[in-house]
UniProtKB/TrEMBL annotation:
<dbReference type="InterPro" id="IPR050500">
    <property type="entry name" value="Phos_Acetyltrans/Butyryltrans"/>
</dbReference>
<keyword id="KW-0808">Transferase</keyword>
<dbReference type="InterPro" id="IPR012147">
    <property type="entry name" value="P_Ac_Bu_trans"/>
</dbReference>
<protein>
    <submittedName>
        <fullName>Phosphate butyryltransferase</fullName>
    </submittedName>
</protein>
<feature type="domain" description="Phosphate acetyl/butaryl transferase">
    <location>
        <begin position="77"/>
        <end position="294"/>
    </location>
</feature>
<keyword id="KW-0012">Acyltransferase</keyword>
<dbReference type="InterPro" id="IPR002505">
    <property type="entry name" value="PTA_PTB"/>
</dbReference>
<comment type="similarity">
    <text>Belongs to the phosphate acetyltransferase and butyryltransferase family.</text>
</comment>
<dbReference type="Pfam" id="PF01515">
    <property type="entry name" value="PTA_PTB"/>
</dbReference>
Amino acid sequence: MIRKLEELISLAKERQKKTIAIAAAQDKVVLEAVVQAVKDNIVDAILVGDKKRILSLGEELGLDLSNMRIEDECDINKAAAKAVDLVSRGEAQFLMKGILGTADLLKAVLNKEAGLKTSNLLSHVMIYEVPTYHKLLFLTDGGMVPYPELKDKIGIINNAVKVAHSLQIEKPMVAPICAVEVVNPSMQATLDAAALATMNKRGQIKGCIIDGPLALDNAISKEAAHHKGIVSEVAGETDILLVPNIEAGNFLGKSLTYFAQAESAGVIVGAKCPVVLVSRADSAKSKLYSIALGAVLV
């Protein structure tokens, strides 16, 4: 069971080395992360983007890019399409977002002609190493599905559970978090949480343990749960936090990063290959962990 993000590096090294295609790779932090990933022998890399700018940044940062293939494409949308095409043709096994918008990359991924779209829901999974929490904390979905309905939440959970299983977490604890920990007919998120927990108990959602609704405090703190009289095997042992909407996930994720100094890794799952996707403001270390995560998930 993986308990630290740095363990992703070792786990990725145990797998057959894969090739990553980076769309719009002309970004300092992205290049630093990719160079380190190649140096750690996690991946081979194909850089798609403004070649002149990529080489200039490499020289400025003192990075050795000589062992990487560079595909020259200055146009952002064309760079995204070319990176996706590399995966479609089998020259790369997964993707990474460089200095372009998420929507621009996903447009290329979801292009029917690219062949990466599946019948599965695409969702974003972030993994946080929070100094005050005793294990890795998964957060989903704060970057992909804006306002998920019950059927969407089932897909989001299934995607996150697959990621957890890949990290050797055999039976992840899932907490659909709400503003309150009781079912309130006026609050749809609590109704969905109760339905998800029931579906899990009846074997309709497998590979995990779901209990909800739970508020954030009792999802991550046994003491808080005990204080409120909540008896739950998930309380205080949560692996996966399922948020009710994209705003909640976005705010919580950035709070963990900026207030709690958490390290993180992020990926979109549900397509035919993982798509490494973290904020353009995230650190090189976060991007390195995300590349390792993507390599593990291929």
